[in-house]
Amino acid sequence: MVTALGPYGSNVFSLISTWQREESQSQDTHSVVLQRMQPEKKESSERDCHLDTCRIPEVPRLVYPKAQLLKPTRVDVLVMTPWFAPIIWDGTFDSAILDAQFRNITVGLTVFAIKKYVVFLKLFLETAEKHFMVGHKVNYYVFTDQPANVPQIPLQEGRQVVVLEVRNYKRWQDISMHRMEMISNFSQQRFLREVHYLVCLDVDMKFSDHVGVEILAPLFGTLHPGFYRGDRQSFTYERRPLSQAYIPRDEGDFYYAGGFFGGSVPEVYRLTMACHQVMMADQANGIEAVWHDESHLNRYLLYHKPSKVLSPEYLWDEHMLQRPPLLRKLRYVAVPKNHAEIRNR
Ligand SMILES: CC(=O)N[C@H]1[C@@H](OP(=O)(O)OP(=O)(O)OC[C@H]2O[C@@H](n3ccc(=O)[nH]c3=O)[C@H](O)[C@@H]2O)O[C@H](CO)[C@H](O)[C@@H]1O
Ligand SMILES: [Mn+2]
């Protein structure tokens, strides 16, 4: 494994171990992070063994078909953003290489099941065991107001469900938005020392095909299935300048979904902390963004360009949308829900 990091001393994982040690000495962890981003500050620890796309991956001997420069595997879709972030589609990656590159990592999956949404947990977790990060270590962090109603399901080795009891809110919009606050709080409290990456998901969904380490990057977002074809005008960004989520009509790269984002723990901490803070500012100003946390996520990802972008293969709704031929796989799909019955009860 890689222990010598060459010039990449400012990587997030040496950061974690340093940050962890200092945590008890400082409440202001955000400034600690910035302080710790010194190139000389190198820590040799388990965490340093991890590889992400910022590193030079060291892999064992592997046999796989070689890429053909003059035969691109996808010509029907954009596979790279203008800021050189890969857009992840079927055919663009080789799991054999990536699994070797990302071996020995632990992935944290955050999912909220508050009030009636606990009914979605069983199918969510069962299908995650079949398709999510198979062969890798996973901590499922289930945030709920009803720990007793979290179903017990059989888990593969190296995987565990961690139930985190949290409060509920009256309005579903508040439940959805406060996920940002809760993820940021728990990132500081425990995710930093327990996992390398966080994947933050909606619960009213199920996995239906492979979702693996190809998604992992310092910061990633997912193309919302309703808008991947659209131009900026069609994006349902927050358009009122009074809101902190405001995006002018001549800006915007993509419309990202609120139900699937993630990255390294420090980056997810920064994102969720920032989104929570601006949602509090909006509340103080008596305004709520049109699509709640999703509007704020979109603004954050406009000004903090994600290092990977997941195609709508990673978030689809078969009941709302007709599947186009370019979607070769449906990996994570909406489970139909009766809004009147399941929300605000
Ligand atoms: C697939 C997708 O991109 N979904 C986004 C979309 O709406 P959705 O219509 O998919 O929102 P939703 O009803 O799924 O609520 C978001 C999530 O909050 C949690 N929850 C909500 C209510 C409740 O009573 N209990 C509970 O646990 C649960 O994890 C749920 O999946 O827009 C929302 C904001 O408007 C969020 O940004 C969602 O992430
Ligand atoms: Mn949802």
From TrEMBL:
It comes from the Eukaryota. It is found in: Membrane. Binds 1 Mn(2+) ion per subunit. GO terms for molecular function: hexosyltransferase activity; metal ion binding. It holds the Pfam family Glyco_transf_6. SUPFAM superfamilies: Nucleotide-diphospho-sugar transferases. One of its GO terms (cellular component) is membrane. One of its GO terms (biological process) is carbohydrate metabolic process. InterPro entries: Glyco_trans_6 (IPR005076), Nucleotide-diphossugar_trans (IPR029044). The keyword Transmembrane helix applies. Mn(2+) binds at D202, D204. Its cofactor is Mn(2+). It is a single-pass type II membrane protein. UDP-N-acetyl-alpha-D-galactosamine binds at F112, A113, I114, Y117, D202, V203, D204. The active site is at E294. An alpha-L-fucosyl-(1->2)-beta-D-galactosyl derivative binds at H224, T236, E294, D317. Keywords: Glycosyltransferase, Manganese, Membrane, Metal-binding, Signal-anchor, Transferase, Transmembrane, Transmembrane helix. PANTHER family: GLYCOSYLTRANSFERASE-RELATED (PTHR10462), HISTO-BLOOD GROUP ABO SYSTEM TRANSFERASE 1 (PTHR10462:SF55). Belongs to the glycosyltransferase 6 family. This is Histo-blood group ABO system transferase isoform X3. It comes from Balaenoptera musculus. The lineage of its organism: Eukaryota, Metazoa, Chordata, Craniata, Vertebrata.
